[in-house]
Amino acid sequence: MLQMTAAEARGALLAVVLLALAGLPARAPREAPPPATAPARPADDVPGRVDLNGADAAALTALPGIGPVLAERIVAHRERHGPFAAVGELAAVRGIGPRLIERLGDRVVAGSRPDTLKR
After folding, report:
1. CA distance 102 to 97
2. CA quadruple 37, 86, 73, 43: dihedral positive or negative?
3. What is the pTM of this model?
4. pLDDT (tens digit, 9 = 90+) per residue, 37-92?
5. Around Cβ 84, how many Cβ atoms within 10 Å?
6. CATH homologous superfamily of domain 46-116?
7. Which of 9, 36, 55, 99 is deepest in the core (most CB within 10 A)?
8. Alpha-carbon distance 89 to 97, whole Å?
């Protein structure tokens, strides 16, 4: 019979356990349930929504993908051409394309009154 010390026996047991675990299939992580959707509300009732026609450059830089340069361009465009009638009009600002407008999603509105909320 093979003689082992206590330390050798623990090491052998650990090796057997690790080899047994290596053969088990990996368990998939649990998926979180989808978030409940909230009903649409006017911009005045939605915290964090930025009005393109009333925000200054500092407020615009809080939006994803909008840095100081783009924020200044948005403000300059608004001052030169008047207020935005719809969020899609951001495409007229140099450096803003459809992907960025999509990324902004429901974080921006064009106008702060419910009757002027156009996407």
Report:
1. 9
2. negative
3. 0.55
4. 444 334 444 566 899 999 999 999 989 899 999 999 999 999 999 999 999 999 99
5. 23
6. Photosystem II 12 kDa extrinsic protein (1.10.150.320)
7. 55
8. 10
DSSP 24-57: SPPPPPPPPPPPPPPPP--GGGSTT-EETTT--H
- Return the structure tokens found at 85: 């009638």
φ/ψ (deg, to 5) at 50: -110, 130
Q: Please tell me the distance from the alpha carbon of residue 32 to that of residue 50, in angstroms, as a whole number.
A: 29
User: Alpha-carbon distance 3 to 65, whole Å?
Assistant: 68
Residue type, 111: G
Query: What is the Cα–Cα distance from 70 to 60, expressed in whole angstroms?
Result: 9
Cα gap 105→25, rounded to integer Å:
40
